[in-house]
From TrEMBL, chains A, B:
Residues 5-147 form the Saccharopine dehydrogenase NADP binding domain. It is an enzyme of class 1 (oxidoreductase). This is Carboxynorspermidine synthase. It holds the Pfam family Sacchrp_dh_C. SUPFAM superfamilies: NAD(P)-binding Rossmann-fold domains. It comes from Sporomusa sphaeroides DSM 2875. Its EC number is 1.5.1.43.
């Protein structure tokens, strides 16, 4: 039994994690939210209290300031707050420092996105091997539970792969993870999470095809798919975190990720990208100031957390899996749909943050109960999926399974360069 | 007789002014090019020498560093270089300081664009009244020749209005200034002059309709016109400097300005504008740095002077003028076409810089000869146009006149607000 949760970060995902942890604080104990800007943490606490989500009012919900790149400060914070579970939902640049602080203090580590270095984009695959997995041995030696990528994608979609392997298939040929947001925020243009991290995803497309890494151009391969509930949407082959662990841990020939984009989004993205405004490389302006264009873009785009109140429509994220069971061909679509307005009604958030935040809170509960307190570093597909999926069913993210769904059959995808 | 020219600025227009002044330095005397960055001045000098354009090699062509917002430095520079003619082709923010230094030293002042303050955009009309015209009385008292807006538009198009009034019409009903660049620079996106100043033009559209100022939305009124040489191009009602003096000095009912834009340009412009990246108002990025988005955009876009070598195609700028002569209706199109590649061949520049720079050099010659040394502040339409037009005919910018051209008949343009 572990208890007391330290949430690092105060963005949209942290907001949802805080709500869901508070709603389960009889299991999780005290909750501290820490970030660079304490007032952002306090705004989350106000939302939790406004919604009357603090289940056990004898437990604490409070905020702290922290520089999450400063390992000694993090260690002090973990010790001082007596946190046994750390949920890192800050910017992707802080994973390694927070992980280090957990290893040093014995706390459980979790995150929802892969580590990145500010000046490097779309490094060579598998990405986890460049950073997190280098701490695998130390976690093993010191009995540290570290659960990597426990949001929705990566996260739930990884658990679905494990579930498919365990309960639905004898052999898996292809897994296509399809992620579409069929909602509308009503703004000219906005990203649903940190624009800086969002756009960094779209620099290169790494995909796992026939058990090899294949490199493709962004937004170059499009498929239309008739999704349950939200209907037909265009999706584009995209690089994504989860491929970088699933390719190692799941016995499948090809694992691809597809993200939905509308024409307007792609036009805006294309203009910004072609002009160089998505670049993380600093430019020097006439006045001598040096700054990365993407940081300025982030400053002018709507704050993702500001989108929640007016958001309408639904997201649909699912795994289309093709393989065999009992020597017969089998295809399933295992998915979740999530409604933006219902999320706002429940926790004052939109569905993108909701789907990323709820799984981390569910994992914290499983760790607190001991079910997932595995004492080493894992990606989600390495854990027993069933208790997680069952718990999510009760926490707002139910899993649906369709047998013999509308077929999803992408063209042959070739590599732009040998890798 | 005035002599010795000080060119302030080292951009694309300064480059052309320097070439054309050097080609006429038997009349103009010594030429000094001064800007913030001396190496940009020196690059221009190298181009002039490479093209063997220094007509009289006993005259000097040299560079200096100057902060053109620092009036005492400017005064020292004018005195030290014994310049009697100052051609200001730097950023629009420096007009008032350079003008002040000219008034203090007795030098002739010229510019090619209206004064702007960095933090103000598209102020109330007429724009000249907000800045330059406030120095009219001092120029008059001290016998200072100040020629405002002596590029192409403003500049040549103003002289054509004067020419029309003097030689072609008894009464003028409408003047439509049409400016189209039918050339191609081969880049994804670029502006032909300083992007910061370029985009500031497109915030509001002030137009002079039935002797009143009318405010319209940018790119909201489109007309297609079959131009001489370059053929049919779309043009959009746009605000522009020259309307702010022509409305006062030319007896016409309506004076409109139209600029050509292709669909790709408008799409990119629209994305950048809607997102807020054209804003001159500083934003604060997460790291605490404050910067105006447009300055970052400028840093990532191609340097306008880099476009010249590969530029193909032509510009066409003309005045469609409708009125009466000897009691009969008359319509003329008075215009110039300019070829990008020919400009590069001659002075290593593109046609946008060429058309803006040649008129300033021509005006300097007219001032040096005494023809235009009028000892007060004028806009171009207040000067005798004939010697100017005739001189341009010999300097690479010939004027053509078509009687009864293809009709240009815009719709009724109403104001978005009372002004």
């Amino acid at each position: 039994m572990k208890k007391n949760v330290l949430i690092i970060g105060a963005g949209g995902v942290a907001h949802v994690v805080a709500h869901k942890c508070a709603m389960n604080n009889d299991v999780l104990g005290d909750i501290c939210i820490a970030s660079r800007t304490q007032q952002k943490c306090d705004a989350i606490i106000e939302s939790v209290l406004r919604k009357n989500h603090l289940k056990d009012s004898t437990k604490k919900l409070y905020s702290r300031t922290v520089n999450a790149l400063d390992i000694p400060s993090l260690i002090d914070l973990i010790k001082d707050t007596q946190s046994e579970i750390v949920i890192n939902v800050g910017q992707s640049y802080i994973n390694m420092s927070v992980l280090e602080a957990c290893i040093e203090t014995g706390a459980v580590y979790m995150d929802t996105a892969i580590h990145e270095e500010p000046d490097k984009v779309c490094e060579n695959p598998p990405w986890y091997a460049n950073y997190e997995w280098k701490r695998k041995e130390r976690c093993e030696q010191q009995g540290i539970t570290a659960i990597l990528g426990i949001g929705f994608d990566p996260g739930v979609v990884n658990a679905w792969c494990a579930l498919a392997q365990k309960e639905y298939f004898d052999t898996i040929d292809t897994i296509d993870i399809l992620d579409v947001n069929a909602g509308s925020h009503g703004k000219y243009f906005a990203t649903n999470f940190d624009p800086e991290i969002n756009f960094r995803e779209f620099k290169k497309v790494w995909t796992w095809i026939d058990r090899q890494w294949v490199l493709q151009k962004v937004h170059s391969i499009r498929m239309d798919y008739d999704f349950p509930v939200v209907g037909t949407c265009p999706v584009y082959l995209t690089g994504h975190d989860e491929l970088h662990s699933l390719s190692k841990n799941i016995d499948a020939n090809s694992i691809r990720f597809w993200m939905g984009f509308g024409d307007h989004y792609l036009n805006v993205f294309s203009v910004l990208n072609n002009i160089g405004l998505l670049s993380e490389k600093p430019v020097k302006v006439a006045e001598g100031i040096e700054i990365a264009p993407i940081k300025v873009l982030k400053a002018v785009l709507p704050d993702p957390s500001s989108l929640a109140p007016g958001y309408t429509g639904k997201t649909c994220i699912g795994n289309f899996i093709r393989g065999t069971k009992d020597k017969a061909k089998r295809e399933i679509f295992i998915y979740n749909t999530c409604d933006h307005a219902e999320c706002y009604q429940e926790v004052e958030s939109q569905a993108i943050s909701y789907t990323a935040g709820v799984p981390a809170a569910a994992a914290a509960i499983l760790v607190a109960r001991g079910t997932w307190d595995v004492k080493h570093m894992v990606n989600v597909e390495e854990l027993d999926p069933r208790p997680f999926i069952d718990l999510l069913d009760t926490m707002g993210l139910p899993t649906e399974v369709v047998e013999s769904p509308v077929p999803f059959t992408p063209p042959v995808i070739t590599s732009l360069e040998s890798v």
